[in-house]
Amino acid sequence: MKGLFKSKPRTPVDVVRQTRDLLIFADLNGDARESKREEKMADLYKNIRELKSILYGSSEAEPREHSETYNNLSSKLNLEARKDATQVVANLQRQQVYSRLISSDYLEANLDLMDILMEGYQNTEMALHYGAMLRECIRHQVVAKYVLESQHMKKFFDYIQLPNFDIAADAAATFKELLTRHKSTVADFLNRNYDWFFEEYNSKLLESTNYITRRQAVKLLGDMLLDRSNSAVMTRYVSSRDNLRILMNLLRESSKSIQIEAFHVFKLFAANQNKPPDIVGILIANRSKLLRLFADFKFDKADEQFEADKAQVVKEIAALEPKESA
Fold first, then answer.
1. Would the pLDDT of 32 be above 60?
2. Residue spans of beta strands (DSSP E) within the chain
3. Residue 107 and residue 98: Cα distance in Å, rounded?
């Protein structure tokens, strides 16, 4: 007889609704009796794990309903629940209903959620979880545009230099994603924010005392400037004597990795057919040093493209003649 009264299996919508209620309870009932709170939190962890199973184990879930999870994810969850919740949020960014990314519509209407995720880098316990979710969210162009134009964007220059290595590396990964994924949005942002952005980039990243920060920064700089979408930004960058000075200093680094990445940016200064007179003057004044440097400048492995680029740079520098200032 007992088998006749089995409980009805919960639908995905049932799981989401109960999860939402449990999250609200966790936020609003901090003073609840300990035993009751532990019971509710255990149910919450179970539900988040079930949401993960629904999303990764089948295609029956309705992404629109699950989006409620965003609103209340907090440090009240234990480590495993945070990991599961992060995976749930990440999966939702890729879920399609009738060929439409439902989460994109949801996020566009709730962009303030990005403020919560970006501020998460200031929370040691939650930073990596929020960072992972933020990178998934900025897959959507409307979200990336919001983050780029927010006041939080300036904070990334500090987050990347946090003493906690894991958090700093995570922030750097998010920063790179923001500046490389959506080409037209990035080009528009860099053109409109050129002055403050590259002032921060040069002083805080390229001239950082931290080796890893410098290496990542010069690599990302090359990726940005060599992208055709950023041609106007590249032309402006390689017309600056201050930028040239920084790149020449990076060429002198003891690290081969930094030297190579710096070369890929420096070659843009050399290849510029409309060099300002002060750029030409600096290159001529340092011509002998640069030519000696490049004579011994080699990849550990043979690289025909690198050798061809180096030969062209040497040719350009050797042929330089002084220009009169306009």
1. no
2. 96-97, 100-101
3. 18
Stated pTM of the model: 0.75
CA distance linking residue 272 with residue 304, whole number of Å: 22
Residues 185, 148: contact at Cβ < 8 Å? yes
Q: What is the DSSP string of 256-294?
A: HHHHHHHHHHHHHHHH-TT--HHHHHHHHHTHHHHHHHH
Residues 6+ apart with CB under 8 A from 130: 116, 117, 118, 120, 121, 123
Separation between Cα atoms, residue 19 and residue 12, nearest integer Å = 11
Distance CA 200, CA 286 (A): 27
Q: What angle do CA 290, 279, 323 make, to 5 degrees?
A: 110
* Interval 200-214: pLDDT, tens: 999 999 999 999 999
Give Cα separations from 108 to 64, 153, 206 (angstroms). Answer: 13, 18, 34
